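To the wet lab folks,

You asked to see what we're planning to order before we commit. Fair enough. Below is the target structure as tokens, and below that is the sequence we designed to fit it. If anything looks off to you, flag it before the synthesis order goes out.
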């Protein structure tokens, strides 16, 4: 059930869901951490909330407007489908630090 909830939060990736996603970065489960990384990446890229209809057209991968939180660093640590295993801890640390700097979002 936790995995399904994490996947939903990742696909929703609203400002409100970031507070829950950040707690998943501490999880001992790599799948949960990857879903959190995905949610943060989707938020920064301003991707739309994913719906089943968007999957076939890949519309969920098209930014829906300005990306004020996007930077070269967020692009380098973007993990829409999860982080590479060998760099997983680097990505987790980056997004934890990003969150600490952007707490005004919640």
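Sequence we intend to order:
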């Amino acid at each position: 059930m936790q995995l399904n909830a994490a996947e939903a939060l990742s696909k929703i990736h609203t400002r409100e869901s970031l507070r829950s996603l950040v707690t998943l970065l501490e999880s001992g489960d790599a799948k949960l951490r990857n879903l959190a990384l995905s949610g943060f990446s989707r938020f920064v890229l301003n991707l739309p909330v994913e719906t089943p209809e968007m999957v076939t057209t890949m519309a969920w991968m098209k930014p829906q407007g300005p990306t004020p939180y996007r930077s070269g660093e967020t692009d380098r640590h973007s993990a829409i489908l999860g982080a590479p295993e060998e760099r997983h801890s680097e990505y987790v640390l980056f997004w934890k630090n990003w969150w600490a700097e952007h707490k005004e979002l919640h």
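Structural context that might help your review: The two ends are 25 Å apart (CA to CA). Residues 2-105 form one domain.

Thanks,
Computational group
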